[in-house]
């Protein structure tokens, strides 16, 4: 690991442990996530500490994926850490995509405010299943776009759009006669209408997850991201690193949950000795160490592949499956070790359990990634027979 990444990661960890964690009891939040006022206050503190958007360097370049991994893991030690440091989803993934695909004009208008931490963003891809729309299969996209002079007109419905409420920058996916397209839009826009913010198991993302109607949205042609019909290619540029970034952040929270559970097991006594001395408890904590270490190794391996310039779709699928399942086991054991306290709001363990459970679904549920891997196994077998 590079010295610059170690230095940045150490600063981020100190900031999250000393400044951010005390805010976990702050009441400025609702069922869907922290209020924007709380996020702004935390980001000002991050700016003062020199840890705002730490994965993007002053010249606009990004840390490598391996370097990013240790920085985002430290930011994830609190559910508020990624928000404070501006390493949270969906903004971090959207920054990465815009840095790779956007024009200089688009970067100045839409990317720079995200990097500065003064704007939030949303990625409009997923659609309602009841409409037969795109979920884990983006090829089912129902949202359309058509050229009208110097504009594109977009119509459709979207669902589970994280951060649309209160966001300033939107990336909207739609299909033209050429295929999938992406558009950069300013939010709010009267043509983009929130029909409801959905109640979900997780509660760490400002704005929650919204259901959206898009009715005759007119977007200037120069706000198309890249070229018409190339949207699926751009989605892969974004999604493979974004899956890995989720793994990085939630590894940090799982580490924190394990720390809390281990402390509880050493302090709490039952039947004449500390809980940790009972094999049923001690072995669960031992299994946590194994899962956490394996998750770290999987993340580092996948990051190394992405750093070669590969899209890393196979590697990111394997890592997303392995890490999300392993971290859920860790969170579940932490709850079990702590008993009634584990399911209460007295510690962050209960939220860690909820957040990591949701992680097993978004950015592709475990079963979809396994199906994709099975298809690769079949393709490789057919190729070997030729």
Automatic annotation (TrEMBL):
GO molecular function, one term: acyl-CoA dehydrogenase activity
Annotated ranges, domain Acyl-CoA dehydrogenase/oxidase C-terminal: 229-376
Record-annotated Acyl-CoA dehydrogenase/oxidase N-terminal domain positions: 2-117
Cofactors required: FAD
Keyword field: FAD, Flavoprotein, Oxidoreductase
Domain Acyl-CoA oxidase/dehydrogenase middle: start-end pairs: 122-197
GO biological process, one term: fatty acid beta-oxidation using acyl-CoA dehydrogenase
GO CC field: cytoplasm
InterPro entries linked to this entry: Acyl-CoA_dehydrogenase, Acyl-CoA_Oxase/DH_mid-dom, Acyl-CoA_Oxase/DH_mid-dom_sf, AcylCo_DH-like_C, AcylCo_DH/oxidase_C, AcylCoA_DH/ox_N, AcylCoA_DH/ox_N_sf, AcylCoA_DH/oxidase_NM_dom_sf
Pfam families reported in the protein's UniProt record: Acyl-CoA_dh_1, Acyl-CoA_dh_M, Acyl-CoA_dh_N
Family statement: Belongs to the acyl-CoA dehydrogenase family.
Subunit (UniProt): Homodimer.
Protein name: Acyl-CoA dehydrogenase
Source species: Sphingomonas panacis
